[in-house]
Write a structure and sequence with these properties.
It contains seven helices and two strands. The chain is mainly alpha-helical. It has a single domain, classed as Sufe protein. Chain: A, CATH 3.90.1010.10. A two-stranded antiparallel ribbon has the order 1-2. The radius of gyration is 14 Å and the shape is globular. The two termini are about 30 Å apart.
């Protein structure tokens, strides 16, 4: 099923011919990341498996999940900004079931270093785990 937010991201990245330009765009996107509460920049919110430090938090408001995050690496921060853009404001079940096809469509998976690819998978896993906890009625 096509997702309008993912389609928009694919379109945005399609204007760039080479990956250096796409990396620059990811760096620009890092500025759009909603700030995580300073009290959440601690070990409880760190994503294991990322080379850089990434903190992600989630809250359930009116049946929808909203994420906040930060990273000490700007490209990683841009990647998490994309994930939040796609997943924010959706129901927990929609997030658990989400097919994040934009990652392959923009070439992100194949153009990241192995450690960044592992980090990307770890970020997605953590975001889906938050949603799963909310879907099962547990606190994340």
């Amino acid at each position: 099923m096509k997702d309008s937010v993912q389609e928009q991201i694919i379109e945005e990245f399609s204007i760039f011919d080479d990956w250096l330009d796409k990396y620059d765009y990811l760096i620009e996107l890092s500025d759009s990341l909603p700030a995580i509460d300073a009290s959440h920049r601690n070990e409880k919110y760190v994503i294991e498996g990322c080379q850089s430090r990434v903190w992600v938090d989630a809250e359930l408001r009116e049946g929808k999940v909203y994420y906040s995050a930060d990273s000490d690496a700007i490209i990683t921060k841009g990647i998490i900004a994309l994930l939040i853009r796609v997943l924010n404001g959706r129901t927990p079940q929609d997030i658990v079931d989400a097919d994040l096809y934009f990652i392959d469509a923009i070439g992100l998976g194949e153009n990241l270093s192995p450690t960044r690819s592992n980090g990307l998978r770890a970020m997605i896993k953590q975001m889906k785990l938050y949603a799963l906890a909310f879907a099962s009625g547990k606190e994340a």
